[in-house]
Amino acid sequence: MRATTLNPCFTDAWYDLGVTLSRLKQCKRARACFLKALSLDPKYEWAYYDLACLDALEDKPNAAFENLHNAVAWDFGRSVSS
Question: CB–CB of 19/50 below 8 Å?
Answer without folding.
Answer: yes
